[in-house]
Amino acid sequence: MCRWQWDVGLVILLLMSNARPACGGGTAADALNGTQRQWNGTERTPFQHDHANNSKKTFPVLSFNYDHVRTHFQISLWILLAFLMKLGLQLIPRLSSIVPESCLLIVVGLLVGLVIQVVGEEPPVLDSEFFFLCLLPPIILDAGYFLPLRPFMENLGTILMFAVLGTLWNAFFVGGLLYGVCQVDSAHLAGVDLLACLLFGSMVSAVDPVAVLAVFEEIHINELLFILVFGESLLNDAVTVVLYHLLEEYAGVGSVSAQDVGLGVLSFLVVSLGGVLVGAIFGVMAAFTSRFTLHNRVIEPLFVFLYSYMAYLSAEVFHLSGIMALIACGATMHPYVEANVSHKSHTTIKYFLKMWSSVSETLIFIFLGVSTVAGPHLWNWTFVTVTILLCLVARVLGVVGLTFIINKFRVIKLTTKDQFIVAYGGLRGAIAFSLGFLLKKEHFPMRNLFLTAIITLIFFTVFVQGMTIRPLVDLLAVKRKQGSKHSINEEIHTQVLDHLLTGVAHVCGQYGHHHWRDKLTRLDKQYVKKWLIAGERSEEPQLIAFYRTLAVNQALELLESGGDMLPSAGPSTNSLETLKSKIQENDQSLARISKQRKEEIRRILRMTLQNTEQKLHSYSQHTQDEAWTLQILHRKQAEMGRKISIFLADAAKLQVSPVQRRARLASGELRETASSPLTVDQCISTFFEPRHIFNIEKIPLRTTNQKCYKMTLCKPSNDKIVSQFIYTHSV
Amino acid sequence: MGSRASTLLREEEIEEIKKETGFSHSQITRLYSRFTSLDKGENGTLSREDFQRIPELAINPLGDRIINAFFPEGEDQVNFRGFMRTLAHFRPIEDNEKNKDPTASEPLNSRNNKLRFAFRLYDLDRDDKISRDELLQVLRMMVGVNISDEQLGSIADRTIQEADQNGDNSISFNEFIKVLEKVDVEQKMSIRFLH
């Protein structure tokens, strides 16, 4: 369809931009050299022409100067192309439900790479520096900022076991056995020594967070499994960093002593704890800064992004684990920043993080495809197949063995199904490839061999495991994700249960994780919140904060969905009829309803009339449970509609007798105005002034077939009465 | 010293408790030593003062209710059997128990019984309904004194509105179960008892 033609056109444009400069090699540097020749001596802007040539040329109305925007143009075009492809792929209806998006993007990358190569240009390769410094941080920050902290902490022991011991086991198992195979098949693989094999093992052993996120998100698996696999993929970064650097250092030398191993263990502790510490420090700084942004709301998101990126870079400076720093930074600052920033900033932060991580993810997978074509490859059947086989076997054995130990310490044991998903979900991704790419050819002559094997492994896990995990999850009837918590009931009852469990644990004399969590929450409330949260929110109990967010969200949803809640709405007239009869029954209940109604309406109006431009779209990578949201929304709408319509029913029936309308002005004089009975609209426009506080009192009348209400509108600042209306209610 | 002998646990008692609650032998003995350490009066039963002597319970917002939950209806002393019976609610659910004889009575730590225990924390008058007032009391205990009555009232109203399905303006046990169906109660209400 026309979309494909558009995409093809873009690809061609991309190729042209690649091929543009006339100089051979086509690099930006050459192009720059070319134009520089013209500029020798005098300073010229790129727009001036060479005046040494004195013959008069016609003034160019339209000129073409591509070179000085070349790099930027290319980058922008790549990103645009990537996303148009992504859009285009979604147009094919059944494809996205069978094949996960990451696979499709890799295929697209392959195609683009092939096209570029066929044309004769050299396809760009995924530069490791670009990957680690630009593409990876947004994804990790997005994950860290929105990390569900509670399940993460509750399962921390399990996650650490998998991340540290599991990765070590994988690395040594694969590396060791691969070395054995290389010895056997010494025909082609004699050059691969033990340390190089172990290095290779360490590169392929780590579960990749990008791939895991990309696949697991689409299958909506339950929170426990998600956090286990994802948490493992985040925390194994420290292990990978240490192993990689250790082995890379000593692979050249050829041997590793016991002292080096000891230093390696120490280094691991430093790398992981140091990374977390750096991240936490930056997180606290960000939270502290956000306390003072009351008058500068626009720059709030900037602090979040910059502090996090600085945390990542600072950790990288000291060769600490950047990923753990980023996670620690995001998770630390999240509760405090959320309490401090405005609603718009909250939305901005969320959107930007999702957008950047989406960009990064797409680019990573496409570049992975392109780099595959770029090569250089050294294919060896034995090496590649043995690698894949060993990785699978190592993963399964590792998970089963570790779960056996872990289950002795867990409250909720991991079942076989859980173990299977954890093992099967161990996907490898671009981090492994980038680590391989970083190897220097001089030290590692078999670099190409490694790269080929890594790419094949990535393809295997992403395609085979990625595609089959969804039907397997359905087949095994694994518990799925339950829809996000937006019920105040759940919040209250969860808190009650927390207190209950802490209490019972203390009765039993056990100071387990309930005790520590309780203690931490208490410390947080007493000291930390006072420092990091601005204003009165620092003392707000969690329940109240939750309720407030809920009420605001609901009001905004209401505003968005039904601006026709007011007077002439269809749905409200039905309730109008039923309620007219109810009203005529009971005096007392009417007076009581008045007060409640007034409270309710006042609250709604204060919230909804604040800023009608605020729109709330819950956008998350996890699709929300639509039915549940809609159900709650409808119930709320019905309730609000009923309440508003009760009030308006009265207003509609009310007549204002002109004589009784008095306006007491601020000066204190009483002026009687004879005016025509107020129409409903006038009533509404008067009532719906959010500045005014109004009181409704019922005035008893001698005549029993009339009810009389006095409504007073006061200024909130000085309680001065602005106007008073007395209404008679005709029965 | 001599009176101590009468408070030692006999084997038959341990067996009975094991059958009733499902705790293991070592867990029972460990909890028994905790029981005796709390029992300052050394008469084999615990009173409310004994519980209140635990410092962490004093700062727990729901401390009083938790203590109440240990004492059966109307009584002021709880013996070791009662103590264990209450604690049995918090034992983790084990897989092999799910395959037991379906005609046997539900074990104390089943999901239903756990939820019923939690429900009783709210429902003081045991009328099988959490009324608005009862809810307000619990909310007040949890948020402290700085929050106005109005605010708490609107939270309570909202809570009941969300959960209430038969329109009686209170939360029955079934509605309570329904609201918590998404919460992993087995994990949230289980303590790993040390052996």
TrEMBL record, chain A:
<keyword id="KW-0732">Signal</keyword>
<protein>
    <recommendedName>
        <fullName>Sodium/hydrogen exchanger</fullName>
    </recommendedName>
</protein>
<feature type="transmembrane region" description="Helical">
    <location>
        <begin position="71"/>
        <end position="89"/>
    </location>
</feature>
<feature type="transmembrane region" description="Helical">
    <location>
        <begin position="187"/>
        <end position="212"/>
    </location>
</feature>
<dbReference type="GO" id="GO:0015385">
    <property type="term" value="F:sodium:proton antiporter activity"/>
</dbReference>
<keyword id="KW-0406">Ion transport</keyword>
<keyword id="KW-0050">Antiport</keyword>
<dbReference type="InterPro" id="IPR006153">
    <property type="entry name" value="Cation/H_exchanger_TM"/>
</dbReference>
<dbReference type="GO" id="GO:0005886">
    <property type="term" value="C:plasma membrane"/>
</dbReference>
<feature type="transmembrane region" description="Helical">
    <location>
        <begin position="159"/>
        <end position="181"/>
    </location>
</feature>
<keyword id="KW-0813">Transport</keyword>
<feature type="transmembrane region" description="Helical">
    <location>
        <begin position="351"/>
        <end position="375"/>
    </location>
</feature>
<feature type="transmembrane region" description="Helical">
    <location>
        <begin position="224"/>
        <end position="246"/>
    </location>
</feature>
<feature type="signal peptide">
    <location>
        <begin position="1"/>
        <end position="24"/>
    </location>
</feature>
<feature type="transmembrane region" description="Helical">
    <location>
        <begin position="130"/>
        <end position="147"/>
    </location>
</feature>
<comment type="similarity">
    <text>Belongs to the monovalent cation:proton antiporter 1 (CPA1) transporter (TC 2.A.36) family.</text>
</comment>
<feature type="transmembrane region" description="Helical">
    <location>
        <begin position="381"/>
        <end position="407"/>
    </location>
</feature>
<feature type="coiled-coil region">
    <location>
        <begin position="576"/>
        <end position="615"/>
    </location>
</feature>
<dbReference type="InterPro" id="IPR018422">
    <property type="entry name" value="Cation/H_exchanger_CPA1"/>
</dbReference>
<feature type="transmembrane region" description="Helical">
    <location>
        <begin position="419"/>
        <end position="438"/>
    </location>
</feature>
<keyword id="KW-0915">Sodium</keyword>
<dbReference type="GO" id="GO:0051453">
    <property type="term" value="P:regulation of intracellular pH"/>
</dbReference>
UniProtKB/TrEMBL annotation, chain B:
<keyword id="KW-0963">Cytoplasm</keyword>
<keyword id="KW-0597">Phosphoprotein</keyword>
<dbReference type="GO" id="GO:0005634">
    <property type="term" value="C:nucleus"/>
</dbReference>
<dbReference type="GO" id="GO:0005509">
    <property type="term" value="F:calcium ion binding"/>
</dbReference>
<protein>
    <submittedName>
        <fullName>Calcineurin-like EF-hand protein 1</fullName>
    </submittedName>
</protein>
<keyword id="KW-1003">Cell membrane</keyword>
<comment type="similarity">
    <text>Belongs to the calcineurin regulatory subunit family. CHP subfamily.</text>
</comment>
<keyword id="KW-0106">Calcium</keyword>
<dbReference type="GO" id="GO:0005886">
    <property type="term" value="C:plasma membrane"/>
</dbReference>
<keyword id="KW-0677">Repeat</keyword>
<dbReference type="GO" id="GO:0005737">
    <property type="term" value="C:cytoplasm"/>
</dbReference>
<feature type="domain" description="EF-hand">
    <location>
        <begin position="110"/>
        <end position="145"/>
    </location>
</feature>
<dbReference type="InterPro" id="IPR018247">
    <property type="entry name" value="EF_Hand_1_Ca_BS"/>
</dbReference>
<dbReference type="InterPro" id="IPR002048">
    <property type="entry name" value="EF_hand_dom"/>
</dbReference>
<keyword id="KW-0519">Myristate</keyword>
<dbReference type="Pfam" id="PF13499">
    <property type="entry name" value="EF-hand_7"/>
</dbReference>
<keyword id="KW-0449">Lipoprotein</keyword>
<dbReference type="InterPro" id="IPR051875">
    <property type="entry name" value="Calcineurin_B_homologous"/>
</dbReference>
<feature type="domain" description="EF-hand">
    <location>
        <begin position="151"/>
        <end position="186"/>
    </location>
</feature>
<dbReference type="InterPro" id="IPR011992">
    <property type="entry name" value="EF-hand-dom_pair"/>
</dbReference>
<dbReference type="GO" id="GO:0015031">
    <property type="term" value="P:protein transport"/>
</dbReference>
<keyword id="KW-0479">Metal-binding</keyword>
